[in-house]
Structures are given as C-alpha cells and as structure tokens.
Amino acid sequence: MGNKVLRLEDAAALIQDGSSITFGGSFLQRVPAAFVRELARQHRSNLHLIKASPSYDADLLALANAITSTVSGMVGFERPYGGAPNFRRKVELGTVHYEEQTCPTIGAGMRASAQGTLFMPLPPSALEGSDIPGNAGLKSIADPYTGTVGYAMRRLRPDWAVIHVAEADELGNGRLPLGAPPFWDHLLTQSAAKVILTTERLVSDEVFRDEPHRTLVAPYRVHAVVKCPSGAWPTPFFPLYDADDPAIVEYLALDESDLPAYLSSTEACDRGLAINRTVRPCAKEVVL
Known about the structure:
- By secondary structure, the protein is α/β, with parallel strands linked by helices.
- The protein is 28% helix and 20% strand.
- Strands 1, 2, 3, 4, 8, 9, 10 and 11 form an 8-stranded mixed beta sheet that branches.
- Helix 2 (33-41) packs across helix 10 and helix 3 (56-63) packs across helix 4.
- The longest helix is centred in the middle third of the chain and has 12 residues, at 103-114.
- The mean pLDDT is 94.
C-alpha cells in the first residue's frame, strides 16, 4: 500500500473546492481541528459538510466562508458554550444552506453508503411527530412484507472523511486509546469515498498486527496520514487531554476580521513546526 504520510498542508490540499466532507468526533469531542484550520488557511470554498453533530468544525469553516451547505442534526458547542454563533449567522444571512436532519437519519444515510445501497429504510416510529420528513424531503416507503409505511433516507456519501486518532501507521491503520468513545468514526470511514487520518503519533505497523481487534480505521480507503500532536485542540481527546476552555472562549469571541490572525497564530503548532501548545491531561494513566 505504500507510505501515506503527508504534511498537514499537503493532505489538506487534497480537498478540492466543491467537495463534500465529514469530520470525526461528535459535538466538542475529538474534532480534527488542526485539519479544519488548515482548510481555512488554504481558503477552501464551496465545501459541503455532512456530519450529524458538528461544532467547532462547522463554525470555523462558516466563519472562513469555506462551506456553503451542511447536512446536520444539530450544530453546537455543548455546555457551557451554547450554540455555534458564526454558523448560525451565516445560515441567517443565507450564505450557508442548512439541511436539518436528525442524528438517526444521517446515520441511516451513512449506513446506506457503507452497505452499497441507494437508501436506508427507517421505521415510522423513528420520526413520529417530527417535521423532519417533510422539511428534509424524506420519501415514504412501504414494507413489502407487512405493508407498514416508513421512510427512506437517501444515501449520504461524502467525498472525504477526516478522522483524528491516537495512533496510526504509515499504511493508514488507525486506532483510539482504550476507553475512548469512537462516536461515528468507523461508519464515516466506511461511507466516505476517501479518508484522511490525523494522528497524535505515528507507530509501527507491528502495533496493529499485534492487536488487530483494536484497529478502528483500516487502510484501504485511507489516502493520507498526518502526524499531528494535539490535533484536536482546543477540543478534548478523551482520555488523552481535556478541552482548552480559555482557547474555546477566545475563539468564540472572534469575528471575520480576527480570523487571519487566529489562523496565523495556530499555524506553526498545527503544522508541527513548533511545540509550544500545552494540553491539560484528563487522566494520569492512559493505555494506548
């Protein structure tokens, strides 16, 4: 399969304007934030974000005018930060189109892609009492065995999935620490056409051969691996490090005029040219 290790800036350059993209993690947990910032530095535009529960990723790309549409269930920063102000403002201005779905319907669309089907059926109880079927254009479908009418969610197949992991090898295997929640990440790697891994550290492929059951991401769809220590900062990567609360508060106070300076101030650490970013451990002992 060959060595897939690239610099952050070279991996981000693989994402073309107009691409559809999804990011690993959920809400404010283990966002591949360094990669998101690099997309903004490279002035990527007209991206289409597909993610059940984005936060910093959707908000920063909206602030950078990098996305024009999203398919999401909810966009927000969780407690104590609240919503995603830049994303909301762009939606209200009409510069970002927001297709509101639910986490289950987005998961169904991703599973349809992963399983090679055109759509995924949902039982009527999945959306009972909701406006989502009408607003999001879900189609009604009858169970051919019972006649029960449910819903069909279209296939969602992002061009790219970007996942941040704890360890990866040069071939494209990736894994999380023991105890770390995988969220949607395995499904994203199965549903997207191509995958990019950012990783806290590079390890030998022997690590994955010794414990194959712990492999979260298999290499056959991985096109690039990026060594990116603290690559989820300022979001947390449980159980390696906690959220950087002051940095998140600082980010949420930015407007568009502040963004170039913010991206410049984080560039050296993101690209591995400096090691001056400190992260707060959330556990004394971590089993990788």
